[in-house]
Amino acid sequence: MEDAIQALSQNFFEKLWADFSDLKIEKQAENVFKISLKSEDSHLIIWPHGKNLETISHILKLLISKISEWYVNIHVEVNDYLEKKDEKLLGFIASKIEYVKKSGKEIVLPFFTAYERKKVHSYVSENWGNVFTQSMGEWKERRIHLCRKDEKMTIDIDGDDI
């Protein structure tokens, strides 16, 4: 499967007339692949706010699904753009979590893509035991809510832990 994705991706980026090098395919999970490349034309491939990157990922996903007859999920990484974007996102989330922990108030975050929401949910559940997330709303109105878990006071009736 990786060889087919490599060949298709190579051909795709050549037809875009984008100057690129170091094209690598990495299987991240079952039917989930990351296509990484270095490019001097990254501004053309990524475009403002990653709009072209999302479109290119979607087109490659459709093409690969068509030749493989399996549904695949594709992430295209150009010059570590997504990695830096994720670091910035998680830094933003960490600052909001600190506010939730101090104030005890729920925060409704701005709109994030499904991919970003998944990253946020995973990050919070793995790293912040006293804060949880929940998504509310539909489609473009779907937002993540950051909430503090209520700490429950327990009483040791037997007196073993006192």
What is the radius of gyration? 21 Å
Helical/strand content category: alpha+beta
CATH classification, class level of the largest domain:
Alpha Beta
Low-confidence stretches: none
- End-to-end CA span: 59 Å
Topology:
Layout: H1 2-15, E1 20-29, E2 32-39, H2 42-46, H3 51-68, E3 73-78, H4 81-103, E4 107-108, H5 114-127, E5 131-136, E6 143-148
Parallel strand pairs: 2-3
Antiparallel strand pairs: 1-2, 4-6, 5-6
Helix pairs in contact: 1-3, 4-5
Describe this structure in words.
The chain has 162 residues and is α+β, with helices and mostly antiparallel strands. It has two domains: 2-79, GMP Synthetase, Chain A, domain 3; 83-148, R3H-like domain (Ribosomal Protein S8, Chain: A, domain 1). Helix content is 46%, strand content 23%. Strands 1-2-3 form a three-stranded mixed sheet. Strands 4-6-5 form a three-stranded antiparallel sheet. A hairpin with a 6-residue loop joins strand 5 and strand 6 (143-148). Helix 1 (2-15) packs across helix 3. 15% of the residues are buried.
Q: What is this structure, in a nutshell?
A:
Helix content is 46%, strand content 23%.
Please describe the structure with a list of short key phrases separated by commas or semicolons.
single chain; 162 residues; alpha+beta; GMP Synthetase, Chain A, domain 3; Ribosomal Protein S8, Chain: A, domain 1; 2 domains; three-stranded mixed beta sheet; 6 strands; elongated
